[in-house]
Specification:
- The protein has 168 residues and is α+β, with helices and mostly antiparallel strands.
- It has six helices and seven strands.
- The strands form two sheets. It has a five-stranded antiparallel beta sheet with strand order 2-3-4-6-5. The protein has a two-stranded antiparallel ribbon with strand order 1-7.
- Strand 2 and strand 3 form a beta hairpin.
- Helix 3 crosses helix 6.
- Bound molecules: zinc ion (ZN).
- The site of zinc ion has 5 residues, from helix 2.
Length: 168
């Protein structure tokens, strides 16, 4: 597999945008051009999957409900929650197949002060990653840095993952 350079993203700008900017998930759902760097992988009536704009790992995907909801469990009925987790499962399996992950991490974070729209991180861990670079260290921009992947390459990978997820 090709290796990509890592870079320290502008974390101050990222956090400021997350805290005072418009909701980024709603922006992606609405196709707001300010959020065009995410590459939508999959969309159905209720859920959307797209790439993290600042990926710490190749294939780093986010899955979210299209409606603006905030609590990972409390804003969903059990049935709605399980429907969303079906998409998380499809995303994880598609990403795993495309990038050859040793494990796939799945987590929901967010903050009521920024990034409030609930979403699930689907993060493939590349085979052979040293132990101390796994788990949170593999997920967080602060520790891993962002991978500098050319947009054309992201678009091609997004198309392949989207096809595996069975799109639209
Ligand atoms: Zn939203």
């Amino acid at each position: 597999m090709r290796l990509f350079e890592r870079y320290a993203s502008d974390l101050d700008a990222y956090h400021e945008r997350a805290r005072i900017g418009p909701c980024f998930v709603c922006g992606i759902v609405a196709r707001d051009l300010d959020f065009s760097g995410h590459h939508i992988l999959y969309e159905d009536d209720d859920a959307i999957a797209f790439f993290n704009r600042w990926p710490t790992q190749r294939g780093y995907t986010l899955v979210a409900p299209k409606e603006h909801r905030e609590q990972a469990t409390g804003d969903f009925t059990v049935e709605e929650y399980l429907m969303l987790q079906r998409v998380v499962h499809r995303a994880a399996e598609a990403v795993r197949a495309e990038v050859g992950a040793e494990r796939v991490y799945i987590l929901s974070l967010g903050s009521n002060e920024g990034n409030a729209h609930v979403h699930w991180h689907v993060v493939p861990l590349p085979p052979g990653t040293p132990y101390e670079e796994q788990q949170f260290a593999a997920v967080m921009l602060e520790t891993a840095g962002a991978l500098d992947i050319p947009e054309a390459e992201k678009a091609a990978l997004a198309a392949r993952i989207g096809r595996r997820m069975g799109g639209g």
